[in-house]
């Protein structure tokens, strides 16, 4: 094992776990969801690398845990808990994304006229706000995704403009 892995695996696992723990708790309670969700997802993926290095460094002691019941029981309970959350979407189909994300994914195919009432606005007012922000809108019946493509902005940028125009 490299000196780097030996020296840094456990501190990196610890630091990234604490970030994942805090951001996960914040997301669970709905605090700063916009700030914490991306952080939680990406840094949890980064956590995989030092975790694997940590396992490599501590392989023999890790295997010794499996000789005792607590590790086997803990693993069984953990997998059962994970399955309880995953099974409904696996059985019921769908894309597995949370409902709010599925709803967001529908927005690019919706029109200005369909989005405006969600913001408490008339379609013409939302259209004017988008045009006022420099976007190319030909009609309130034009899909949001098409407007963002024609205006060279992301759908997220377009939606931020629309939300800022909300009364």
Explain what you see:
The protein is an all-alpha fold. 73% of the residues lie in helices and 0% in strands. It has nine helices and no strands. The relative contact order is 0.07.
| Rg, Cα atoms, Å | 23 Å
Helices, by number, come to 9
**What is the terminal-to-terminal distance?**
60 Å
Low-confidence stretches: none
| Fraction of residues in β-strands | under 5%
Helix content: over 70%
Number of strand elements: 0
Structural class: mainly alpha
What sequence of helices (H) and strands (E) makes up the elements? HHHHHHHHH
Shape: elongated
Query: Main β-sheet: number of strands, strand sense, barrel status?
Result: none
Mean pLDDT: 91
Summarize the structure.
The chain is an all-alpha fold and 167 residues long. 73% of the residues lie in helices and 0% in strands.
Descriptive key words:
9 helices, 0% strand, mainly alpha, 167 residues
Helices and strands in order, then pairings?
Elements (H helix, E strand, L loop, with lengths): L2 H26 L4 H25 L1 H7 L3 H24 L6 H8 L5 H4 L7 H10 L11 H7 L4 H11 L2
């Amino acid at each position: 094992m490299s000196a780097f892995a030996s020296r840094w695996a456990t501190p990196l696992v610890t630091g990234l776990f604490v970030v994942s723990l805090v951001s996960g708790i914040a997301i669970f309670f709905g605090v700063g969801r916009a700030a914490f969700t991306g952080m939680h997802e990406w840094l949890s993926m980064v956590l995989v690398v030092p975790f694997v290095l940590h396992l490599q460094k501590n392989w023999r002691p890790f295997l010794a845990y499996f000789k005792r019941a607590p590790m086997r029981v803990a693993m069984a309970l953990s997998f059962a808990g994970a399955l309880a959350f995953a099974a409904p979407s696996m059985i019921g189909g769908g894309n597995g994304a949370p409902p709010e994300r599925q709803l967001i994914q529908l927005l690019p195919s919706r029109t200005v006229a369909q989005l405006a009432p969600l913001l408490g606005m008339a379609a013409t007012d939302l259209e004017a706000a988008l045009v006022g922000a420099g976007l190319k809108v030909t009609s309130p019946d034009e899909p949001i995704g098409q407007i963002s493509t024609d205006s060279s902005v992301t759908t997220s940028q377009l939606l931020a403009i629309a939300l800022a125009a909300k009364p």
